[in-house]
Design a protein that fits this description.
The chain has 266 residues and is an alpha/beta fold. The protein has one domain: 3-Layer(aba) Sandwich (Rossmann fold), CATH 3.40.50.1580. The chain is 31% helix and 28% strand. It is built from seven helices and eleven strands. The chain has helices at 35-42, 78-90, 126-130, 141-154, 178-186, 196-206, 235-257; strands spanning 28-31, 46-54, 57-64, 67-72, 95-104, 114-123, 137-138, 162-170, 191-193, 209-219, 224-225. It has a five-stranded mixed β-barrel. A hairpin with a 2-residue loop joins strand 3 (57-64) and strand 4 (67-72). The chain is globular, with a radius of gyration of 18 Å.
Length: 266
C-alpha cells in the first residue's frame, strides 16, 4: 500500500474542507476571514447562491457587472487560508483578493483607513511548510495596480486614508508584544494581519494571482484601537469593510477589462 498523495485528489471531486467542486465558483474569489463577512460581500452581488458552508469555509457565488465572482471565508490564520486557496484552485478559481481587517503599526494610520499590500514579511509557520524562509510573499502586480486605481476612485465619495506598501503576516495574535510591534514598526511595515502570507505563497506556487485590500481595525503604536468588532461596535471598521469590498469589486472589473497583461481581457 503506497503513501497517499493529496496533490492527486481528483480536481472534479467535492473538495475535502470547503465542500466546493468545479462549477461552484468563478475565476475571481474574494477572501474574507469571517464567514459572516461572506454575506456582507454577497449583498453587493447579483443572483447570489450559497454553494457551500463547511467548518470556517462559507462560499457564495454571484455576479457583479456581469462578471462571475465568489466569496469564501478563510477563517483565522494561515493554515485554514492555505486550505481555502488550494481547494478553490482545484475548483477552478484563478484570482484571489483577500478582503479583511488589519492593524496599523505606523503613526498616522487610523481606524477605518484602507491598506493595500504589495508584499508581507512571513512570520507564519504555514508558508514555511511550502517554501524556504528566503522566499518572498508578494501580491500580483496587476491586481495591486487595479486595487490602487479603484481605491483612489472610491476616495472621491468616501473619505478614508489610503496606505500602500509592505506589511507583516503573523501566526500568534496574543504573542504580539509591545517589543514585537515596535521592532516591526521600525522596519517600516505598515500593518499586521494573519492570512496573506499563505495566500500569496500558495497562489504563486499554484500559478494563480492574489492580492489584498484591508480595512484598518486600529493602530498598535498609537492609542486608536477598539476590540469590539461586532456589527455595531466599531463603525469605522464596518465602514472600512464596505470600502474594501467596493474597492475589490471595482478592481476586478478594471482588471478583467484590461488586455495588456497575461491574465486580463476576460
Amino acid at each position: 500500500m503506497g503513501t497517499f498523495d493529496k496533490s492527486a485528489i481528483d480536481k472534479d471531486a467535492r473538495q475535502y474542507a470547503t465542500r466546493i467542486r468545479r462549477g461552484d465558483v468563478g475565476r475571481y474569489v474574494l477572501l474574507p476571514g469571517d464567514p459572516a463577512r461572506v454575506d456582507r460581500i454577497g449583498a453587493h452581488l447579483d443572483n447570489v447562491n450559497l454553494v457551500a458552508d463547511s467548518r470556517e469555509f462559507r462560499t457564495v457565488t454571484g455576479s457583479y457587472r456581469d462578471i462571475e465572482i465568489s466569496a469564501t471565508s478563510t477563517g483565522v490564520g494561515c493554515p485554514s487560508a492555505s486550505i481555502a486557496v488550494e481547494e478553490l484552485v482545484n475548483a477552478g478559481a484563478t484570482h484571489f483578493i483577500r478582503v479583511g481587517s488589519t492593524a496599523g503599526i505606523q503613526p498616522g494610520i487610523r481606524t477605518g483607513d484602507i491598506v493595500i499590500t504589495t508584499g508581507v514579511l512571513r512570520n507564519d509557520g504555514t508558508s514555511r511548510a511550502y517554501v524556504p524562509d528566503t522566499y518572498p510573499a508578494v501580491a500580483d502586480h496587476f491586481l495591486v495596480h487595479a486595487l490602487i486605481e479603484a481605491a483612489r476612485e472610491r476616495r472621491r465619495e468616501a473619505r478614508f486614508g489610503l496606505h500602500i506598501g509592505l506589511g507583516a503576516c503573523d501566526d500568534a495574535f496574543y504573542a504580539e508584544t509591545p517589543e514585537w510591534i515596535e521592532r516591526h514598526s521600525r522596519l517600516g511595515l505598515l500593518n499586521i494581519e494573519m492570512e496573506s502570507s499563505a495566500i500569496f505563497t500558495v497562489a504563486q506556487l499554484r500559478g494563480v494571482h492574489a492580492a489584498m485590500v484591508c480595512g484598518v481595525s486600529g493602530n498598535l503604536v498609537e492609542a486608536d484601537f477598539e476590540y469590539d468588532r461586532g456589527e455595531h461596535g466599531n463603525q469605522r471598521l464596518v465602514g472600512a469593510w464596505e470600502n474594501a469590498i467596493a474597492i475589490a469589486l471595482d478592481a476586478i472589473v478594471r482588471y478583467d477589462k484590461e488586455p495588456s497583461h497575461p491574465a486580463g481581457g476576460g
